[in-house]
Design goal:
Blueprint: H1 2-30, H2 37-43, H3 48-75, H4 78-99, H5 102-130, H6 136-164, H7 167-187, H8 200-210, H9 213-220, H10 223-254, H11 258-283, H12 289-309, H13 314-341, H14 348-355, H15 357-375, H16 380-409
Helix pairs in contact: 1-4, 1-5, 1-6, 1-7, 3-5, 3-14, 3-15, 4-5, 4-7, 5-6, 5-14, 6-7, 6-11, 6-13, 10-11, 10-15, 10-16, 11-13, 12-13, 12-16
């Protein structure tokens, strides 16, 4: 019995590590280009609005395909889909770096966005099927923090590479890294599926009912799942403003050097990673995940608003970015656990594919708005809008918890 438990724990750790590696790359991909926007603006002779359009196209494609990908993940080979997604994003970056053209860049956002649609449904589906239940909270926490680790390291790495060599070669190198990771997933793919517990009864149930449009629509349109979708949408708007555009905001508001501005972004993302680990440990000690999420969004929202409302020194900005990052990260494990608690086991991919589409919907509108604000010299409004949306997340938490309580009383 002890041997079986030890084997299960070891397999759970391996699965979490592999999935987290893919998740790290997916988030690193988000920040390959945005930290270089000031360079791309001059080199490609484009506006911030046009650069924001890159993010829009990426998110439109992901938004349109993430739910279908989630449904495919629940029915097909999730590990193979994930491996293909990593390879496709790596190839997209290689083409971007070799072409060094704005229009090629724009076109390659299509396959990159399609690949991005696979990550969340595949990741959560594999984790739920192969990780031991008693380790699920820690697996979610490590998975999430790996994404933030990718986000935190990307800005600094990209600036160092771009200034040491050039941005085109830097992008090609990162694309090659994606192909290496895809190769690792391909070789280790058997670890991501437990052949000893295929759970044929659950497979049969998915085949009988999982594909019915009525059942799927009823599930996705239920209030708790809709609130989860809006949660991800609001956090997307807030996160886009701070993560994608803060470097450009600091450049415009303070004429801050590119390296310094990217360090402040790295501070935000690194603090988010620490917050996720803290939030994961905290969520294991309480069932009030709603309170964790509420306090986190309030502190983060206030910190972001402060940067838009007052002139601050570099040190003060670092402190505000640290608070915003830590508080934002603290809510992530509770967010996932709140959604998981109201999701049928055989529909994990579908539900997480749907709710995480909120990230893409926010990513469609927000970059255009923020790009226009920057081009119009209203950089401070980027933080004001981001802070307000961060605080508005509270409404979705109340709605999710109320709907869950009503369902449990029926």
């Amino acid at each position: 019995m002890i041997e079986s438990s030890t084997s299960e724990t070891a397999n759970s750790i391996k699965v979490t590590g592999l999935i987290s590696l893919a998740h790290l790359y997916s988030h690193f991909f988000f920040f390959v280009l945005p930290p270089l926007f000031p360079l791309l603006r001059d080199d490609l002779s484009v506006s911030y609005t046009e650069l924001g359009l890159l993010i829009v196209v990426f998110n439109v494609v992901s938004a349109l395909t993430q739910l279908p990908m989630g449904m495919l993940v629940d029915r097909l080979d999730a590990p193979k889909l994930l491996t293909t997604a990593v390879a496709l994003q790596g190839l997209s970056l290689i083409v971007i770096g070799l072409a060094s053209s704005y229009w090629i860049l724009l076109v390659m956002m299509v396959p990159a966005g399609l690949a991005n649609a696979v990550y969340h449904p595949a990741d959560y589906s594999i984790l739920n099927r192969t990780v031991a239940p008693e380790m699920m909270g820690r697996a979610f926490s490590v998975h999430t923090v790996s994404g933030f680790a990718g986000s935190a390291t990307a800005p600094l790495i990209m600036v160092i590479l771009a200034t040491t060599i050039n941005w085109e070669t830097a992008v090609v190198l990162i694309g090659g890294g994606g192909l290496v990771i895809a190769g690792i997933l391909q070789v280790c793919g058997h670890i991501l599926v437990d052949p000893e517990t295929p759970d044929p009864a659950n497979e049969g149930e998915r085949r009988k009912t999982g594909g019915t449009l009525k059942r799927t629509a009823g599930l996705l349109l239920s209030l708790p799942i809709l609130m989860g979708f809006i949660f991800w949408l609001f956090i997307s708007v807030a996160h886009t403003g701070v993560s994608y555009f803060s470097v450009s905001v600091f450049d415009q508001m303070y004429e801050m050097p590119l390296a310094t501005a990217n360090i402040t972004l790295t501070v935000f993302l690194a603090a988010s990673s620490v917050g996720i680990l803290f939030g994961g440990a905290l969520s294991d000690r309480t069932h009030r995940h709603d309170l964790i999420a509420i306090y986190g969004t309030v502190f983060s929202g206030v910190a972001i608003l402060t940067m838009g409302l007052t002139e601050m020194t570099v040190v003060a900005i670092m402190v505000a970015m640290s608070v915003a990052g830590f508080a934002t990260g603290m809510t992530a494990p509770s967010r996932d656990l709140l959604v998981r608690a109201v999701t049928p086991k055989d529909s994990i991919g579908t539900v997480f594919g749907f709710v995480s589409t909120g990230l893409n919907v926010g990513g469609i509108v927000a970059p255009i708005v923020f790009g226009v604000l920057l081009d119009g010299g209203r950089a401070e409004n980027v933080f004001l809008i981001s802070g307000l949306f961060q605080i508005a997340i509270i409404l979705t938490i109340f709605g999710m918890q109320r709907a869950t309580r009503l369902r449990s009383e029926v």
